[in-house]
Amino acid sequence: MMAGQLDGPILWARSRWQSEQLHPLGLTPFYDPARAIMVKCKDQTEILGTAEDALRSGAVSFIVAELPEPLDFRQGRRLQLAAKDGNIPGLFMVQNDAGNNAAHTRWHCEPIYDSSDSTLQRWSLIKNKTGTLKSWEVRWHAKSRRVIVVSEASEQPRFTPKTS
Prior knowledge:
With 164 residues, the chain is of the alpha/beta class. The protein contains three helices and eight strands. It has helices spanning 24-27, 44-57, 73-86, and strands at residues 10-15, 36-41, 62-66, 90-93, 105-111, 121-128, 134-141, 146-149. Strand 6 and strand 7 form a beta hairpin. The chain is globular and about 40 Å long.
């Protein structure tokens, strides 16, 4: 979703042993899949090296890395410094509880069943070095390629004044 707001190529690094593939047409509501550079790496070390080099170089606009193993503090800090040097955002997907203290924020995303909208999700900020922890319900608006935060007020029952 964030990649759709940025210009330029997107680097997506993952393990080459993963049998499932990203389907380019499935990415079109979010961004033009022709912008994606898919990198299949031998192992976590290669994924991290690829991501660090891309972050530092500034040659791409966004980086996604699927990490098969937990990230240690040193690795996380190296990525943080590389992102700062290149001024590039990165999304590093880890298994639950496999993150480290170097991350500024940590999020948990889960789908919410809604028979009328398959894009409804709950995004929970579960770690935030500079602020409050909170959850939001969001919907994806494909036409504008934006996330829409569902208003808390819209989830409340409406007050209807009685008329006599």
